[in-house]
């Protein structure tokens, strides 16, 4: 009986190792000039519906990427496609880092032009799953991020769920819940949900 239990344990360990070994890993996408993403977004409360887009226009030195917003504004992103406000690295909110695999986690600290403000965040790759959006069905890495900053007059918490999908090089879905708190005022919560409507690869 002891021998049988030992075999069961051994088989279980091998199976577990096989599952762990078979977990996919996403390397940094091969960005191309012309890569373009179009999204549909809904926001509550208010049930507002909008669209937004991002398009790579230039690959810059120091692993930076120039990106055009839907309104024509040009901004910089890093090699993991994290937005760089004003082109300043200390302002980056690190929502992704490569390679991506389930179980990875990291923290970040984001500075602001106002030195009295500082945002701290934690992120974790929690799942590898299939999702369906208007652009199609994709296998994606779900990253959950919890970020917050506060001072005496204001406190804000942001909770992201983002689905990074290798087939479209970036996210195919995002849910952002923003909670705002102020002294002597009821808190407010807004939720913005975006889904990929179209991905056009660059040349």
| Top CATH class | Mainly Beta
End-to-end separation in angstroms reads: 63 Å
Contiguous runs where pLDDT drops below 50 for at least 5 residues: 1-21
Task: Write the CATH fold name.
Answer: YmcC-like fold
Mean of residue pLDDT values: 89
Strand content: over 45%
User: What order do the strands of the largest sheet run in, or round the barrel if closed?
Assistant: 5-4-3-2-1-11-10-9-8-7-6
Inertia-based shape: globular
Tell me how many strands there are.
11
Give the total of domains.
1
Provide key terms for this protein.
single chain, 203 residues, mainly beta, YmcC-like fold, globular
Please give a structural write-up.
- There is one protein chain.
- This protein is mainly beta.
- The chain has a single domain (26-200), classed as YmcC-like fold, CATH 2.40.360.
- The chain has 1 helix and 11 strands; from the N terminus they run H-E-E-E-E-E-E-E-E-E-E-E.
- An 11-stranded antiparallel sheet has the order 5-4-3-2-1-11-10-9-8-7-6, with no helix packed on it.
- Strand 4 and strand 5 form a beta hairpin.
Which secondary structure elements does this structure contain, and how are they paired or packed?
Elements: H1 2-22, E1 36-44, E2 48-60, E3 64-69, E4 74-77, E5 83-84, E6 105-111, E7 118-133, E8 136-150, E9 155-164, E10 171-182, E11 185-200
Antiparallel strand pairs: 1-2, 1-11, 2-3, 3-4, 4-5, 6-7, 7-8, 8-9, 9-10, 10-11
Please sum up the structure shown.
The chain is mainly beta and 203 residues long.
């Amino acid at each position: 009986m002891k021998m049988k239990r030992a075999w069961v344990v051994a088989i279980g360990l091998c199976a577990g190792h096989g599952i762990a070994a078979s977990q996919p890993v996403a390397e940094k996408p091969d960005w191309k000039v012309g890569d373009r993403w179009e999204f549909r977004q809904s926001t509550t409360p208010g049930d507002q519906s909008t669209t937004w887009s991002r398009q790579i226009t230039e690959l810059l030195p120091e692993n930076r990427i120039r990106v055009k917003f839907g309104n024509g504004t040009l901004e910089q992103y890093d090699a993991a496609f994290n937005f760089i406000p004003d082109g300043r690295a200390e302002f980056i909110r690190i929502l992704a880092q490569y390679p991506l695999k389930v179980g990875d986690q990291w923290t970040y600290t984001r500075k602001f032009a106002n030195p009295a403000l500082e945002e701290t965040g934690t992120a974790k790759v929690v799942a590898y799953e299939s999702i369906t959006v208007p652009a199609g069905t994709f296998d994606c890495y779900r990253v959950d991020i919890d970020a917050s900053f506060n001072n005496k007059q204001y406190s804000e918490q942001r909770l992201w769920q983002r689905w990074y999908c290798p087939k479209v090089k970036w996210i195919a879905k995002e849910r952002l819940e923003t909670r705002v708190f102020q002294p002597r005022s009821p808190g407010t919560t807004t939720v913005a949900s975006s889904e990929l409507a179209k991905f056009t690869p660059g040349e």
